[in-house]
Structures are given as C-alpha cells and as structure tokens.
C-alpha cells in the first residue's frame, strides 16, 4: 500500500477558494488534502480537514503575524509534502513559510488576473517551486508556466 502525499491547500475566501477547491477536487482521490481559509462558514464534506485562519490583506498588514503563527502551527502539526495556493495574502504567508520549512510549493495565480500577475503572485513568483498562470499570454514558459485554466 502506498502512502498518500499530504497537500496543504490555502487561499483567501471567495473566488480564490472556489478555484482552490476545484483544483483539489481532482487531487482528493490520490492525496490527503488539508485545507485552510479565513472563513468559518465553510463546512467540510466527509473527511475533509479544514482549519480556520485569520484573514489578511494589503489593508490590514498587522494581521500578517497572527496569520503566520496559525499557518506555521498547521504546517508543523500536519507536515504536508506540498503547499498549494490560489492566493491571495494567506497563500503568500504559506508559500514563504513553506520555503522556510523546505516544503514544495505551488502557486496558481487567479484567473481574475488577465492583464498581469497578481500583487500576491509577484511576491511569491521567485519563491514558489511551481508558479502557474491561467492566462497563456502571461506565461514565459520558464518561471511563469501556463498549463490551462481552473474555471
């Protein structure tokens, strides 16, 4: 019997979360997914493990510290092999901590960012092990990859 990889999936609520759960739906059969998002209203389905974290944005940077402490705790407790995020600020926190803990990281920039990479994406572009855009014209096929869209 092979062991399933554990994936830590984290995003902001709203469109980021919708894209993340669509990505993870295809992974759940082969991987154990641990979710984190800043929304206590989301209810787990079946055996899903979901952590609630502090939301953070460019408007309330002071929340970066409590968010980082929560994400760090989850990473240490769950020991995922991979971090997957669709953004925004909570994903940045997770990607940066993931690099510190030597965890593989994947960033999927939001499909809403048609003209340019998101502000959060720019922060992690050189830090994420894999950086994906959902718009082919934003890809350089080296650092920023296009493999299709989620929606």
TrEMBL record:
Keywords: Endoplasmic reticulum, Membrane, Transmembrane, Transmembrane helix. One of its GO terms (molecular function) is N-acetylglucosaminyldiphosphodolichol N-acetylglucosaminyltransferase activity. InterPro entries: Oligosacch_biosynth_Alg14. The keyword Lipid metabolism does not apply. GO terms for biological process: dolichol-linked oligosaccharide biosynthetic process. The keyword Transmembrane applies. It is found in: Endoplasmic reticulum membrane. It is a single-pass membrane protein. This is Oligosaccharide biosynthesis protein Alg14 like.
